[in-house]
Design brief:
SGNH_hydro, about 35% helix, two-stranded antiparallel ribbon, Ester_Hydrolysis_Enzymes, disordered N terminus, SGNH_hydro_sf, Rossmann fold, six-stranded mixed beta sheet, alpha/beta, Arylesterase
Length: about 220
Amino acid sequence: MVPCGFRDASRYGRRAAFGLAFSGFGVLRAAAAGPVRLLALGDSLTAGYGLPPGEGFVPKLQAALTARGRQVRVLDAGVSGDTTAGGLARLDWALAEEPQAALVELGGNDGLRGLPPAETRRNLTAILDRLEARRIPVLLSGMLAPPNLGADYGREFAGVFQALGQRPGVLFDPFFLEGIAGDPALNQPDGIHPNPRGVAILVARILPAVEALLERVPSG
């Protein structure tokens, strides 16, 4: 997998600058209204690996939210080949954009490499802890392990996401590739990454959960 950088999925500018209003009673500061900043922290499934520009998950999610009248700026923190450890290592960098909500899609590469589920759980727990400390609402999207790793590993791996999805304040999407995985018509030739048809199905399926997440962003 070819690493991808951190990309802004929209053409919105930087957060509007703070205006200062002076009165005889002091200084009033008000932030200009702007789009909600939604961090998409993930791997190649988030980054749109193998797809033309504009056809990946993040730009399609951005377009779907815009079509729904949502003022949202999706921040693309998808890096192909990344494990949960990699996502944790670059989280502070991703948080520099000051997101107000986060979609976490990591773990697929942990499963493909057969990494210990306990390690995956530690990394995801640390990510969720850090987001919680910043009071950033989270949508955690789960992943399943490849069947060739055996039923025991598969149950333990899936259990990591199921357990973390029950954390207070966390919205849970059990399987990011639900309805897409295993269908040749919806995946690229590698059988792992969705093609444009698969991305369209993915975005339509997860959109209600993303909108529920955005409703948790404090207004004002």
